[in-house]
Amino acid sequence: MEVITCLAAALGESFGELWQIFEKPVVKYVSGQEKYERSAAVGTIAEAVGNMGASVTPYTASLMKMLLKRLGDEDPEVRSNAAYGTGLLCEKSTDEAQITGQYNTILAKLEPLLHQQQEARLLDNSAGCVARMIKRHPNNVPLNDVLPVLIQLLPLREDYEENEAVFEMIVSLYQQQNTVIQGLTSSILPVLQKVLSPPEEQLSDETREKVMQLAQYLQSQ
């Protein structure tokens, strides 16, 4: 599994041509009896999707079906990896019809995962998935219902990598002058202050710069 992840990282979009070779052996473990096998397989798929970029498009339907099933897995680590992979698939695939056609199903599967009693990584990856969905197709998500729940989960507690997706989405909505996000500003400002505070690894340098600019803009309003 690790070899596949390394290959995908090294080859980027070119890995899309090779995925058809690796898909079958990886998928075999997705429904395995052992939870660590399922977790490793779903995690490998998620990393491959992220690295393949738009070349994942021909595999959208089959990967979506698999990831949606694992969002209901009994093991939180498998569900977490599935949420991560689903968000990346929504972000990277250019099969708009297939992706947006599954939005309601994805949100229904994620809804029970977006509760604060869940494990931190599962919460973080679920939040990242929703953020990617919103950023890609904001008109296909009921923002009035989803955004307040998402903001309540912030700041992320464990998987800081997902902060990039979350804050890219928040910045994007403010740039679009979205009225729903504007109405949540009083809840968002304390979150921005927390992620700009230690630990510094919460944000990459690039994301930190965007968050600082947003915080300054909102405080000046």
Please compute the radius of gyration using only Cα atoms: 17 Å
List the total number of helices.
Answer: 13
Please estimate the helix content: over 70%
Q: Regarding CATH, which class of the largest domain?
A: Mainly Alpha
Order of helices and strands: HHHHHHHHHHHHH
Q: Could you tell me the mean pLDDT?
A: 92
The N- to C-terminal Cα distance equals 49 Å
CATH fold-level assignment of the largest domain: Leucine-rich Repeat Variant
Number of domains: 2
Main sheet summary: none
What is the SS-derived class?
mainly alpha
Query: Can you tell me the overall shape?
Result: globular
Low-confidence stretches: none
Q: What is the CATH architecture annotation of the largest domain? A: Alpha Horseshoe
Strand content: under 5%
Looking at CATH, the homologous superfamily of the largest domain is Leucine-rich Repeat Variant
Number of strands: 0
How does this model look, in words?
With 221 residues, the chain is mainly alpha-helical. It has two domains: 1-113, Leucine-rich Repeat Variant; 145-221, no CATH class. Helix content is 71%, strand content 0%. It has 13 helices and no strands. Helix 1 (2-11) packs parallel to helix 3 (35-52). The longest helix is centred in the first third of the chain and has 18 residues, at 35-52.
Quick summary:
The chain has 221 residues and is an all-alpha fold. The chain has 2 domains: 1-113, Leucine-rich Repeat Variant; 145-221, no CATH class.
Tags for this entry?
single chain, 221 residues, mainly alpha, Leucine-rich Repeat Variant
